[in-house]
Amino acid sequence: MKIIPRGTMDSSKCLSPETHEFRVPQRGVTTMEAMETWLKSEAYLEYVGFVTAMNQEVKGKALTIDCHQSEVTKGLLVLLEKLDTWITETPPIQQPQRFGNKAFKTWYTKVKENALDLLQEALPPLFYRAIPEIKEYLVESFGNSTRIDYGTGHEMSFCMFLCCLFKIGAFVAADNLAVVCKVFNRYMVLVRRLQTVYKMEPAGSRGVWALDDFQFIPFIWGSSQLIDHPRIEPRSFLQEDIVKNFAKDYMFLGCIKYINEVKTGPFAEHSNQLWNISGVGYWAKVNDGLIKMYKAEVLAKFPVIQHVLFGSLLPLTVASMPVSDLAGRRAKLSRESLPKPPDGFSKPSIVSNKEPNSSSKEDSQ
To answer: What are the CA-CA distances from residue 64 to residues 3, 58, 142, 182 (Å)?
Structure first.
């Protein structure tokens, strides 16, 4: 039975792209007080519904699964491939700064200036009227051209772009698997290349409590992929051979592979929260904890949500459906400034609090 989030994948509830009044989305959460509206808004429910529905869809399925690929799916894959080619055509420049290569601004400007044409090539003419609205989410999903940084807010913008494609009917339920396993995974390949080629800074990294410097969603969907896997347990991602052999099949392991490539030193030191997660007994619990953590540490954080765009497809208006856990999220907002472990994995005690030495690390592998 398919999980259909409110208003995102039920084709019978898709709006008409020929008559709907689209509008260019804008930032709407400019104060902490406005977070109250966001947490009970149509946009929040639509977005969380999309994330959880995709999470359910990929449960137990590898990235290499043979799935239906619509013309829209194929068009977006061509679009992302073209953006990858533009990275090759826009090499990093020589500059005194080690991080934040300014060539990214050139690449980003090219994307922004060509976004309309890119989407017209990727989508059927029926959806052209929606492009002025949805292209803003696409452009925002690759990082900030001023700070030359990338974070979970940019990742969220791409997911909102995908969510909007469901809302206008460009994607339908038959596309669910391909949206995650093909389109989103291709996006991950692209943004990792952006991060490494242009030495992008993490946007708003939380240091020791950060799950990852750049991403979050692939850990959620990736842990769902591994639920009930006959061989790979949560502790397995600390094993080099498991990561090497299965990184292309499971997003979670792909994330670990990337971390191992760009970071040095003991894993428990540079990725403490992930080290703790490796002590959880089974993937379903990891997945549930990551969803709770995402809601608390990304969706309930003003520094992230202040940059989110709201338009006609994802409006910042109070939803008619009550949000059951609103009270809990309100309470979290008042504790923004205090360093604390993220929800879902309450504190770093899932495994030993004592810093593992090199021998114990090798034993775990």
So the answer is: 22, 11, 25, 9
Distance in angstroms (rounded) separating the CA atoms of residues 58 and 249: 12
- Structure tokens, 281: 């007994």
Integer-rounded Cα Rg, in Å, for the chain is 20
Q: What is the mean pLDDT of residues 275-290?
A: 93
Q: What is the pLDDT of residues 31-74, one digit of tens each?
A: 999 999 999 999 999 999 999 999 999 999 999 999 999 999 99
Amino acid sitting at position 199: K
- 301 has pLDDT over 50: yes
For the chain, the first-to-last Cα distance in angstroms comes to: 38
The answer to whether 90 touches 189, Cβ cutoff 8 Å, is no
Structure tokens at 88: 């090759």
CA distance 263 to 275: 14
Residues 153, 307: contact at Cβ < 8 Å? yes
Number of Cβ atoms within 10 Å of the Cβ of 334: 9
CA pair distance 105, 30, nearest whole angstrom? 25
Lookup: tokens for 136: 């803003």
Provide the whole-model pTM: 0.86
CA nearest neighbour of 154 among 295, 308, 29: 308
Q: How far is CA 330 from the centre of its chain?
A: 23
pLDDT (tens digit per residue) in 96-115:
988 999 999 999 999 999 99
Q: Is 107 exposed, middle or buried (0-12, 13-18, 19+ CB in 10 A)?
A: buried
Q: What is the largest CA-CA distance in the chain?
A: 65
Q: How many CB atoms lie within 10 A of CB 67?
A: 17
Strands (E), 74-206: 149-150, 201-202
d(CA 219, CA 177): 16
Residue 303, CA distances (Å) to 160, 273, 298 in order: 18, 21, 9
Residue 297 corresponds to which tokens in the numbers above?
């540490």
